[in-house]
TrEMBL record:
Chief location of this protein within or outside the cell: membrane
Protein location: Cell membrane; Membrane
The protein's name: Hydrogenase-4 component B
Assigned keywords, A-Z: Cell membrane, Membrane, Oxidoreductase, Transmembrane, Transmembrane helix
Single GO term (MF): NADH dehydrogenase (ubiquinone) activity
Transmembrane segments: 12-31, 43-66, 86-109, 121-138, 144-161, 173-193, 205-228, 279-301, 308-329, 341-365, 386-406, 440-463, 484-504, 524-547, 646-664
Gene Ontology terms describing biological process: ATP synthesis coupled electron transport
Topological category with respect to the lipid bilayer: Multi-pass membrane protein
Cited InterPro entries: ComplexI-like_HydComp, NADH_UbQ_OxRdtase, ND/Mrp_TM
Superkingdom as given in the UniProt entry: Bacteria
Domain annotation NADH:quinone oxidoreductase/Mrp antiporter transmembrane: ranges: 138-422
């Protein structure tokens, strides 16, 4: 190995973290069903997170970065890995979330109770974490693709842990198909990059021109290949079912980290072009606007708690892409302030979304662990039995809605400021597109608030809607502690975002060297954000203290919730997920296409009436699947070539080789 750059310590730490992650799953493979082996695996993964966090922090505060060259023995030459502040921003939440997920999994998925699949889950969790780290430090495109494929397979085996369930197998198959469709697009993109640069390396920032012949093709293949992984609409079709059916701590990693690898790939490739045209930024921005609005619209219509959170991942990927789109438009117009706000907002929202979405999935896992169901309409009154889980879920809900004093507010404010900067400094079409971001982001935020009022109210408040799911108790400390760590991180960034000024400035320089003088603290009022957040947090703590003292001093009568005048109120009279969101779903019915099944009450002595609603995955069920069925039907004649005979297939291979040799001969 050959190290270069200062300080090289961060590379040592990151490589050591990769080794600990990769080997963390081995104890349970050798001693299946052992709680002690599971705790050892978790300790290795947490140690890897601490080592990796140290390396990532060193990289964030040192703009020079460091690299290592590894001899591979492959025709593609040596492998090169390195870290800079841009990759450091993605490494930071990755280590936090994977470490918290490992701790959470010890209590959530104990080896003694899941001897048949806990070893598999733990091994692929470690392999997934190792591949994510390798991917984020890869400078060689071949090393990146190798890590990309390992990540895809490790995520597949982790999410299909309960592969005895048909819906889990279907979710895994859909994920694997879309993952490899995206990979095919990336193979094309990296081949085109090789043609432009002559090397199997990521180009340095600003070294390529968008006027080159293959630039547009590189941009489009990057959007498709990385868009599949990021879950951007309409390439999101794998995401809802995968997030819903995976174990909850794996869902946290899929949503918080795996999706961000697509964002990282986009930013790394886009940063290589010094003069992106306006249509590049407009394309990314429109995809972000569509993903943001439709992601939250689909979320409002969901009855499954984890599926609802999955659609909010699409919404937040849309917000990140809005920031990237604003940055690309700023570059095309020579507006460094616009570019800086877009890049900084997108990067900070990458970190923020990873933290609060992991918090929400872990909290949802605690609820599911206690109630035994993911169906929102079967829950109710959970806060009485799980008070700490309710508090942590509420913190995640406030953060994801972009409300102060938590971290989601800070990154969304940066994107708002980018939109306002475009309105005030840019005219014509180049100003119109970023200007759309502000009202759309406000709409997304309002709908997100409505959605989480629905979730929190129906799940945690009121009375249990089903006695079969009314039991359960608070999660053990091994599950609560990781949630507490994530909630503290959300609060810390919300109250003291100024600590990220230097890392953000360094990341801006890594993305585009021309931004090295565009200090982000001159564009964002960090001190006012801190004062607002601290004031709100202190006010909330003071009100809670006063209410607690009052409750302790006065007698608190207990009884059923007022039944609005009904003599025999019941839990079935409460709001359901469908009734709460019916009006909002009707606003988007052209896209959502809700299906309502109704049995009206009739006659003098009516029987039981029934009303059910279901919102399909419109893009998958109404577009992709019908198209694939049509394609299958039209290509039936081609299937006659499949005889199932090995000698025939060898003949096909021989003919193909002859044709290729003839076509490439001089």
């Amino acid at each position: 190995m050959i190290f270069s750059g200062e300080p090289a310590t961060c590379i040592y730490l990151l490589l050591l973290a990769v080794a600990c992650q990769a080997f963390s799953g081995l104890p349970l493979l050798f001693i299946p069903g052992s709680d002690r082996a599971q705790r050892l695996s978790a300790a290795l993964l947490v140690s890897a997170s601490l080592l990796g966090l140290s390396g990532a922090l060193i990289a964030l505060f040192n703009p020079s970065g460091a690299t290592v060259t590894i001899s591979s023995g492959l025709p593609f030459g040596t492998f090169e890995a390195g870290v800079d502040p841009l990759s450091g921003f993605f490494l930071l939440p990755m280590f936090i979330v994977t470490g918290c997920a490992a701790l959470y999994g010890v209590s959530y998925w104990p080896a003694a109770d899941h001897a048949g699949n806990c070893g598999k889950l733990t091994f692929f969790l470690g392999l997934l974490a190792a591949s994510l780290t390798t991917l984020l430090i890869a400078k060689s495109t071949v090393l990146f693709l190798l890590a990309w494929e390992v990540m895809a397979f490790a995520a597949y085996f982790a999410l299909t842990t309960e592969d005895e369930k048909p819906q889990v197998r279907e979710a895994g198959t859909l994920y694997l198909i879309t993952a490899h469709l995206g990979a095919l697009s990336l193979f094309a993109m990296f081949s085109l990059l090789k043609g432009e640069t002559g090397e199997w390396l990521f180009p340095a920032a600003g070294t390529l021109s968008s006027h080159a012949g293959a630039a547009a093709a590189i941009f489009l293949t990057a959007i498709i290949g990385f868009g599949f992984k990021a879950g951007s609409m309409p390439l999101h079709i794998w995401l809802p079912s995968a997030h819903a059916n995976a174990p909850s701590h794996i869902s946290a990693i899929l949503s918080g980290i795996v999706l961000k690898t697509g964002i990282y790939g986009m930013m790394r490739v886009f940063s290589a072009f010094s003069d992106p045209p306006l249509w590049w930024g407009a394309t990314v921005l429109v995809l972000g606007l569509v993903s943001g609005v439709l992601g939250v619209a689909f979320a409002i219509a969901q009855h499954d708690m984890k599926r609802l959170l999955a659609y909010h991942s699409i919404e937040n990927i849309g917000i990140i892409m809005m920031g990237i789109g604003i940055a690309l438009i700023g570059e095309s117009q020579g507006n460094p302030a616009l570019t800086a706000l877009g890049v900084a907002g997108a990067l900070l929202h990458v970190v923020n979304h990873a933290l609060f979405k992991a918090l929400l999935f872990l909290s949802a896992g605690s609820v599911i662990h206690a109630t035994g169901t993911r169906e929102i309409d079967l829950m109710g009154g959970v806060a009485r039995r799980l008070p700490y889980t309710a508090l942590f879920f509420l913190a995640g809900a406030v953060a994801i809605c972009g409300l102060p004093p938590l971290n989601g507010f800070v990154s969304e404010l940066m994107i708002y400021l980018g939109s306002f900067t475009a309105i005030s400094s840019t005219g014509g079409l180049s100003g119109m597109f970023p200007a759309l971001t502000a009202p759309v982001l406000a709409l997304v935020g309002g709908l997100a608030v409505a959605c989480f009022v629905k979730v929190f109210g129906i799940v945690f408040l009121g009375a249990p809607r089903s006695q079969a799911h009314a039991g359960g108790h608070e999660a053990p400390g091994g599950m609560l502690a990781p949630m507490g760590v994530l909630a503290l991180c959300c609060a810390a960034i919300g109250v003291a975002p100024g600590v990220l000024i230097s890392p953000l400035n360094n990341a801006l320089s890594a993305y585009r060297t021309s931004l090295s003088g565009e200090w982000i603290e001159n564009l964002v009022p960090f001190s006012w954000i801190s004062l607002l957040a601290a004031g709100l947090l202190l006010a909330a703590l003071l009100v809670s203290y006063l209410l607690g003292r009052r409750a302790a001093r006065l007698p608190v009568p207990s009884g059923p919730t007022w039944g609005c005048g009904y003599l025999r109120p019941s839990s079935s009279m409460q709001y359901t997920a469908s009734s709460f969101g019916a009006t909002l779903v009707s606003w988007f019915k052209i896209v959502l296409r809700p299906e309502v099944h109704r049995e009206e009450a009739a006659g003098l002595f009516p029987g039981r009436a029934r009303l059910e609603s279901h919102v399909p995955e419109t893009v998958l069920e109404r577009i992709y699947l019908p198209f694939l069925e049509y394609l299958f039907e039209k290509t039936l004649p081609v299937r006659r070539l499949q005889h199932g005979k090995l000698n025939i297939y060898i003949f096909y291979t021989f003919i193909t080789l002859v044709v290729l040799l003839a076509a490439t001969s001089q």
